[in-house]
Amino acid sequence: MNHMQVFLTYSDIALASGLIIIVLLISWQLRLKLTSTLLMAAVRTIVQLSFIGLILAWIFAREQWYEVLLILTIMTLIAGSAAKNRVKRSYKGLLTDTLIAVGTSATLVTAIAMIVILRVQPWYTPQFIIPILGLILGNSLTAISLTSNQLIETFHEQQGRIEMMLSLSARPFEAVHEQIRAAITNGMTPTLNSMLVVGIVSLPGMMTGQILAGADPTQAVRYQIVTMFLICVSSTLGCTISALLIYRRFFNKNQQFTLPR
Protein backbone atom coordinates (compact mmCIF):
# COMPACT_ATOMS: atom_id res chain seq x y z
CA MET A 1 0.00 0.00 0.00
CA ASN A 2 1.45 3.36 -1.07
CA HIS A 3 1.39 6.22 1.40
CA MET A 4 0.92 9.64 -0.15
CA GLN A 5 2.98 12.49 1.26
CA VAL A 6 1.63 16.02 0.99
CA PHE A 7 4.19 18.81 0.85
CA LEU A 8 2.82 22.18 1.91
CA THR A 9 3.60 25.29 -0.11
CA TYR A 10 3.41 28.97 0.82
CA SER A 11 0.07 29.19 -0.99
CA ASP A 12 -1.26 26.42 1.26
CA ILE A 13 -0.16 28.41 4.30
CA ALA A 14 -1.91 31.46 2.87
CA LEU A 15 -5.15 29.50 2.45
CA ALA A 16 -4.94 28.25 6.04
CA SER A 17 -4.29 31.80 7.23
CA GLY A 18 -7.45 32.88 5.43
CA LEU A 19 -9.46 30.71 7.82
CA ILE A 20 -8.65 33.23 10.55
CA ILE A 21 -11.17 35.50 8.83
CA ILE A 22 -13.92 33.23 10.18
CA VAL A 23 -12.65 33.80 13.71
CA LEU A 24 -12.42 37.55 13.12
CA LEU A 25 -16.02 37.64 11.85
CA ILE A 26 -17.25 35.79 14.93
CA SER A 27 -15.31 38.17 17.16
CA TRP A 28 -16.75 41.20 15.36
CA GLN A 29 -20.33 39.88 15.29
CA LEU A 30 -20.36 38.95 18.99
CA ARG A 31 -18.30 42.00 20.00
CA LEU A 32 -15.72 39.87 21.73
CA LYS A 33 -13.09 42.61 21.31
CA LEU A 34 -10.52 40.03 20.29
CA THR A 35 -9.74 41.34 16.80
CA SER A 36 -6.40 42.95 17.59
CA THR A 37 -5.35 40.04 19.80
CA LEU A 38 -6.28 37.50 17.10
CA LEU A 39 -4.38 39.40 14.42
CA MET A 40 -1.33 39.75 16.65
CA ALA A 41 -1.47 36.05 17.56
CA ALA A 42 -1.76 35.03 13.90
CA VAL A 43 1.16 37.23 12.82
CA ARG A 44 3.34 36.08 15.69
CA THR A 45 2.54 32.44 14.93
CA ILE A 46 3.76 32.83 11.35
CA VAL A 47 6.83 34.91 12.20
CA GLN A 48 7.96 32.92 15.24
CA LEU A 49 7.51 29.47 13.67
CA SER A 50 9.15 30.56 10.40
CA PHE A 51 12.10 31.96 12.34
CA ILE A 52 12.54 28.86 14.49
CA GLY A 53 12.20 26.70 11.37
CA LEU A 54 15.21 28.42 9.81
CA ILE A 55 17.22 28.09 13.02
CA LEU A 56 16.38 24.40 13.43
CA ALA A 57 17.25 23.65 9.80
CA TRP A 58 20.66 25.26 10.37
CA ILE A 59 21.24 23.42 13.66
CA PHE A 60 20.07 20.06 12.25
CA ALA A 61 22.57 20.41 9.41
CA ARG A 62 25.52 21.19 11.73
CA GLU A 63 24.78 19.01 14.81
CA GLN A 64 27.18 20.83 17.13
CA TRP A 65 26.58 20.05 20.82
CA TYR A 66 27.23 23.60 22.03
CA GLU A 67 24.73 25.06 19.56
CA VAL A 68 22.10 22.52 20.60
CA LEU A 69 22.82 23.25 24.28
CA LEU A 70 22.42 26.99 23.64
CA ILE A 71 19.00 26.46 22.04
CA LEU A 72 17.90 24.19 24.90
CA THR A 73 19.01 26.79 27.45
CA ILE A 74 17.15 29.59 25.69
CA MET A 75 14.00 27.46 25.46
CA THR A 76 14.16 26.69 29.19
CA LEU A 77 14.72 30.33 30.16
CA ILE A 78 11.78 31.46 28.03
CA ALA A 79 9.57 28.73 29.53
CA GLY A 80 10.48 29.74 33.08
CA SER A 81 9.81 33.39 32.31
CA ALA A 82 6.47 32.52 30.69
CA ALA A 83 5.43 30.49 33.75
CA LYS A 84 6.30 33.43 36.01
CA ASN A 85 4.36 35.91 33.87
CA ARG A 86 1.19 33.82 34.16
CA VAL A 87 1.14 34.19 37.94
CA LYS A 88 -1.08 37.08 39.06
CA ARG A 89 0.55 37.76 42.43
CA SER A 90 4.28 38.03 41.99
CA TYR A 91 6.99 38.28 44.64
CA LYS A 92 10.70 38.88 44.65
CA GLY A 93 12.33 35.63 43.61
CA LEU A 94 9.36 34.15 41.76
CA LEU A 95 11.28 34.09 38.47
CA THR A 96 14.10 32.16 40.13
CA ASP A 97 11.61 29.67 41.57
CA THR A 98 9.85 29.07 38.25
CA LEU A 99 13.17 28.69 36.42
CA ILE A 100 14.32 26.10 38.96
CA ALA A 101 11.03 24.21 38.76
CA VAL A 102 10.86 24.25 34.96
CA GLY A 103 14.56 23.65 34.39
CA THR A 104 15.00 20.84 36.90
CA SER A 105 11.94 18.84 35.89
CA ALA A 106 12.39 19.27 32.13
CA THR A 107 16.13 18.58 32.15
CA LEU A 108 15.81 15.45 34.28
CA VAL A 109 12.96 13.94 32.26
CA THR A 110 14.53 14.84 28.90
CA ALA A 111 17.83 13.24 29.96
CA ILE A 112 15.99 10.03 30.93
CA ALA A 113 14.17 10.05 27.60
CA MET A 114 17.32 10.52 25.51
CA ILE A 115 19.69 8.21 27.43
CA VAL A 116 17.48 5.48 28.90
CA ILE A 117 14.35 5.22 26.69
CA LEU A 118 15.33 6.33 23.18
CA ARG A 119 19.08 5.65 23.61
CA VAL A 120 19.95 8.25 20.99
CA GLN A 121 23.60 8.54 19.97
CA PRO A 122 24.90 11.15 20.40
CA TRP A 123 22.62 12.43 23.17
CA TYR A 124 22.49 15.95 21.69
CA THR A 125 21.03 14.83 18.33
CA PRO A 126 18.87 17.90 17.61
CA GLN A 127 16.21 15.97 15.67
CA PHE A 128 15.21 14.26 18.93
CA ILE A 129 16.21 16.37 21.89
CA ILE A 130 14.84 19.74 20.73
CA PRO A 131 11.25 18.62 19.96
CA ILE A 132 11.11 16.42 23.07
CA LEU A 133 12.28 19.22 25.35
CA GLY A 134 9.86 21.59 23.61
CA LEU A 135 6.91 19.28 24.28
CA ILE A 136 7.90 18.84 27.91
CA LEU A 137 8.52 22.56 28.50
CA GLY A 138 5.25 23.63 26.88
CA ASN A 139 3.18 21.39 29.13
CA SER A 140 5.30 21.82 32.26
CA LEU A 141 5.14 25.61 32.24
CA THR A 142 1.34 25.47 32.07
CA ALA A 143 1.17 23.03 34.99
CA ILE A 144 3.70 25.01 37.04
CA SER A 145 1.97 28.34 36.43
CA LEU A 146 -1.40 26.88 37.47
CA THR A 147 0.09 25.44 40.65
CA SER A 148 2.01 28.60 41.51
CA ASN A 149 -0.90 30.90 40.84
CA GLN A 150 -3.37 28.96 42.97
CA LEU A 151 -0.94 28.36 45.84
CA ILE A 152 0.10 32.00 46.13
CA GLU A 153 -3.50 33.19 45.94
CA THR A 154 -4.55 30.65 48.58
CA PHE A 155 -1.74 31.63 50.93
CA HIS A 156 -2.84 35.28 50.73
CA GLU A 157 -6.53 34.49 51.14
CA GLN A 158 -6.08 31.97 53.97
CA GLN A 159 -3.39 33.76 55.95
CA GLY A 160 -5.58 33.89 59.06
CA ARG A 161 -6.44 30.20 58.91
CA ILE A 162 -2.80 29.18 58.44
CA GLU A 163 -1.66 31.37 61.36
CA MET A 164 -4.41 29.89 63.54
CA MET A 165 -3.22 26.35 62.79
CA LEU A 166 0.34 27.37 63.62
CA SER A 167 -0.85 28.82 66.91
CA LEU A 168 -2.46 25.43 67.67
CA SER A 169 1.00 23.79 67.45
CA ALA A 170 0.73 22.64 63.83
CA ARG A 171 4.04 22.38 62.01
CA PRO A 172 4.50 24.75 59.06
CA PHE A 173 4.06 22.02 56.43
CA GLU A 174 1.07 20.60 58.27
CA ALA A 175 -0.55 24.04 58.28
CA VAL A 176 -0.34 24.41 54.50
CA HIS A 177 -0.40 20.78 53.34
CA GLU A 178 -4.01 20.97 52.15
CA GLN A 179 -3.31 24.12 50.12
CA ILE A 180 -0.21 22.55 48.54
CA ARG A 181 -2.10 19.37 47.68
CA ALA A 182 -4.94 21.32 46.05
CA ALA A 183 -2.52 23.50 44.06
CA ILE A 184 -0.53 20.55 42.70
CA THR A 185 -3.77 18.76 41.79
CA ASN A 186 -4.95 21.87 39.95
CA GLY A 187 -1.68 22.09 38.02
CA MET A 188 -1.86 18.42 37.02
CA THR A 189 -5.50 18.52 35.91
CA PRO A 190 -4.90 19.52 32.23
CA THR A 191 -2.29 16.78 31.80
CA LEU A 192 -4.45 14.11 33.42
CA ASN A 193 -7.52 15.16 31.43
CA SER A 194 -5.49 14.91 28.23
CA MET A 195 -4.27 11.42 29.14
CA LEU A 196 -7.80 10.25 29.90
CA VAL A 197 -9.17 11.11 26.44
CA VAL A 198 -6.10 10.69 24.22
CA GLY A 199 -6.78 8.37 21.30
CA ILE A 200 -10.52 8.38 21.95
CA VAL A 201 -11.58 12.02 21.79
CA SER A 202 -8.38 13.60 20.51
CA LEU A 203 -5.29 12.74 18.49
CA PRO A 204 -2.32 14.71 19.88
CA GLY A 205 -0.36 17.08 17.69
CA MET A 206 2.84 15.05 17.66
CA MET A 207 1.06 11.86 16.59
CA THR A 208 -1.04 13.69 14.00
CA GLY A 209 2.05 15.39 12.57
CA GLN A 210 3.92 12.11 12.22
CA ILE A 211 0.98 10.40 10.52
CA LEU A 212 0.51 13.32 8.10
CA ALA A 213 4.22 13.15 7.32
CA GLY A 214 3.80 9.50 6.29
CA ALA A 215 5.09 7.72 9.39
CA ASP A 216 3.87 4.27 10.40
CA PRO A 217 0.79 4.83 12.65
CA THR A 218 1.95 2.18 15.12
CA GLN A 219 5.29 3.94 15.54
CA ALA A 220 3.52 7.29 15.85
CA VAL A 221 1.37 5.81 18.63
CA ARG A 222 4.42 4.48 20.48
CA TYR A 223 6.16 7.84 20.34
CA GLN A 224 2.99 9.51 21.59
CA ILE A 225 2.66 7.11 24.54
CA VAL A 226 6.26 7.81 25.52
CA THR A 227 5.83 11.59 25.27
CA MET A 228 2.58 11.54 27.26
CA PHE A 229 4.31 9.73 30.12
CA LEU A 230 7.29 12.08 29.93
CA ILE A 231 4.97 15.09 30.09
CA CYS A 232 3.09 13.61 33.04
CA VAL A 233 6.26 12.96 35.05
CA SER A 234 7.78 16.35 34.20
CA SER A 235 4.58 18.20 35.08
CA THR A 236 4.30 16.37 38.41
CA LEU A 237 7.92 17.09 39.31
CA GLY A 238 7.62 20.71 38.20
CA CYS A 239 4.43 21.32 40.19
CA THR A 240 5.90 19.69 43.29
CA ILE A 241 9.18 21.62 43.11
CA SER A 242 7.32 24.88 42.47
CA ALA A 243 4.96 24.30 45.42
CA LEU A 244 7.83 23.51 47.79
CA LEU A 245 9.81 26.57 46.69
CA ILE A 246 6.79 28.82 47.19
CA TYR A 247 6.16 27.20 50.58
CA ARG A 248 9.69 28.14 51.67
CA ARG A 249 9.17 31.74 50.54
CA PHE A 250 6.17 32.14 52.84
CA PHE A 251 7.95 30.93 56.00
CA ASN A 252 10.94 32.68 57.56
CA LYS A 253 13.86 31.12 59.42
CA ASN A 254 11.81 31.05 62.60
CA GLN A 255 9.09 29.00 60.86
CA GLN A 256 6.70 31.96 60.98
CA PHE A 257 4.20 32.53 58.17
CA THR A 258 5.02 35.75 56.31
CA LEU A 259 3.87 37.26 53.04
CA PRO A 260 6.91 37.88 50.78
CA ARG A 261 7.32 41.18 49.00
From TrEMBL:
Residues that span the membrane, as ranges: 6-26, 38-59, 65-83, 95-118, 195-213, 225-247
A GO CC term assigned to this protein in UniProt: plasma membrane
Membrane topology of this protein: Multi-pass membrane protein
Keyword check for DNA-binding: no
Keywords recorded for this protein, A-Z: Membrane, Transmembrane, Transmembrane helix
Family matches, as InterPro entries: UPF0014_fam (IPR005226)
Domain of life, per lineage: Bacteria
Localization in the cell: Membrane
PANTHER family associated with the record: PROTEIN ALUMINUM SENSITIVE 3 (PTHR30028:SF0), UPF0014 INNER MEMBRANE PROTEIN YBBM-RELATED (PTHR30028)
Family indicated by similarity: Belongs to the UPF0014 family.
Protein name (database record): ABC transporter permease
